[in-house]
Design goal:
- By secondary structure, the chain is of the alpha/beta class.
- It has six helices and seven strands.
- Strands 1, 2, 3, 4, 5, 6 and 7 form a seven-stranded mixed sheet that branches.
- Helix 3 crosses helix 4.
- The relative contact order is 0.19.
Length: about 200
């Protein structure tokens, strides 16, 4: 099968996921999906992100020749999903909860190609420093936590709050690149079949 005329479609409106694909030189078109991201009753974090990744990949309109990539990331602590804070007080609550603790970051990744959708869940373990009340006030004050799962961004100022990362760092940002490449290759789309620009 030739890739002439085919596109790589990122089913996401996330600037972080776009930046990750741009960093490795992939050309793509981004189409944000329109789905309900509410967790189901008693849904575990890994099942939640895998379901949403699949639903996102299958929700966007793409031609049969296109390959669609989708992902969903959540922070989990003690088995509970920590989504995006609803306000500053909720961000403060999450950061106090994660302070001096290790939590899980799960990303579900989906690749839709040739009429099939394959998924994988990648987990990274993140350990936070002891976060003082003054640090929380500063961090919440700059506004960064308010649109981030778990109330922090590893790739931003929130990196100051992270002591260690065990596993994929790009997974914490929102798209585990090594596992994405494996899914693409398994679907018949190794990186050398996709149009690439020099990373930079």
């Amino acid at each position: 099968m030739s890739n002439a005329g085919a596109r790589l479609v990122l089913a996401s409106g996330s600037p972080r996921r776009r930046q990750l694909l741009e960093t490795i030189g992939l050309r793509f078109v981004a189409i944000p999906p329109d789905i309900d991201e509410t967790p189901r009753p008693d849904e575990d974090p890994r099942g939640y992100v895998e379901r949403l990744a699949r639903e996102k990949a299958e929700a966007v309109r793409a031609s049969p020749d296109d390959v669609v990539v989708a992902a969903d990331t959540t922070v989990a602590f003690a088995g509970h999903i920590l989504g995006k804070p609803v306000d500053a007080a909720d961000a403060r609550r999450m950061l106090l909860l994660l302070s001096d603790q290790t939590h899980d970051v799960h990303t579900g990744v989906a690749v839709r190609a040739g009429g099939r959708t394959a998924t994988r869940v990648v987990t990274t373990f993140v350990t936070m420093v002891t976060i003082s009340e003054s640090d929380i006030a500063w961090y919440v004050g700059i506004g960064e936590p308010l649109d981030k799962a778990g109330g922090y961004a590893l790739q931003g100022a929130g990196g100051l709050l992270v002591r260690s990362v065990e596993g994929s760092s790009s997974n914490v940002v929102g798209l585990p690149l090594a596992e994405l490449a494996e899914l693409l290759a398994a679907a018949g789309w190794p990186l050398d079949r996709l149009r690439l620009d020099p990373p930079g």
